[in-house]
């Protein structure tokens, strides 16, 4: 038992001990990675920023800052297109905005191609 080890995430027991690369709780038998605990603590709340560094939130209105090619469409999303009522998500790849683009419908965008309006 060491004061530097975190408590068990399952039962909150402070009797955890190291066994190789894992931490083990003798009370409930739960095993977890010490690095996973460190990564979770370092992450904190997720903050999504636009292309110029403004913090985005659900419901914001954003403007597209460059032409975007859309698969299955012959027309791109033009610079200056306003998108209202965005939702922040953990999307595929680095797509972190779920929205409805006027003239195109529902899609996911990267925060790096928009700026807060």
Automatic annotation (TrEMBL):
Annotated InterPro entries: YjdM (IPR004624), YjdM_C (IPR013988), YjdM_N (IPR013987)
Q: What parts of the sequence cross the membrane?
A: none
- Protein YjdM N-terminal domain location is 4-33
Gene3D superfamilies on file: 2.20.25.10, SH3 Domains
All residue ranges annotated as the Protein YjdM C-terminal domain in the record:
48-117
SUPFAM superfamilies in UniProt: Prokaryotic SH3-related domain (SSF82057), Zinc beta-ribbon (SSF57783)
* Family per record: Belongs to the YjdM family.
State the NCBIfam families in the record.
phnA (TIGR00686)
What is this protein's name?
Answer: Zinc ribbon domain-containing protein YjdM
**What species does this protein belong to?**
Demequina litoralis
Its ancestry begins with: Bacteria, Bacillati, Actinomycetota, Actinomycetes, Micrococcales
